[in-house]
Amino acid sequence: MNSRLLLIAGLLACPFTVSQGVADTSVNFSTISHQADFELTQPIISANVLSLPGKELLAFGVDDKRQRWLAIYGLLQMDNIEPQLVLLDKVILSHDLFRYDILDADELKLAATNATELQTLYFLNSQALLQYLPASQTAIDKPKSANQNGRIEEVAAVNSITILPRGDFISRGDFVAHINNDAIADVIISDFRTAHLLLGTQQGEFARQSIPILPIVELTSEGRSTAKHRFIIPILISMAYKILLRSERECWRYFINFLLGFLPPMQNIYR
Fold first, then answer.
1. In the chain, where the domains are located
2. What is the pLDDT of residues 213-241, one digit of tens each?
């Protein structure tokens, strides 16, 4: 199988007609392929990261010069023309990035065609949390214009269990979560002594909370990993009192959310 080939088999149209109380449905499927200019190294992600109708495809790969890339594709559909898969943005990924993650749309309850609530793609290196900032214009807005305008920008300094300045590869992590039911992505990062919670706000910033919980570190044949475990009641109470910027009701709601079974899965750190 060609690892440079992007392939979509999707439902493009599903009109419904009703006649005499009987629903008649017709479904049209279409297969679209596109030849990428780099080798795909990770599974393609479908996400709503651009202010356009529908979702985009996020592809991660490495070119012949070992340069890492993030490419974002979308469907361009014009009258009387078959839909085409077009490159909307393409961003260089520096070699210090070792993890990426995005909050699943199901957790935010986003509609596939809702372009007002976007998902944010986050990255990690050994010292910072970064995010993808979309291009100002895309191939759908201006098909003949350059579209490599997106960038990766630091949003918060972090302490991480990873100390290497350069990662051998980049893969999807599990550090983006939905903690306090506010429809905003939050971030959980562990170092050797503390679990750090970065709670997303409406202003696009993070409210940082640190909890004195030691990570569980395992060394396996696939590399070193950390696992976060259930927080016991004394730690939860301590954490609730530390949220000084929140109201009493919000503190207890935040406390209860953790108490009712918040258990992030294992997070691979590096190989």
1. 39-213
2. 777 666 655 554 554 444 444 444 445 44
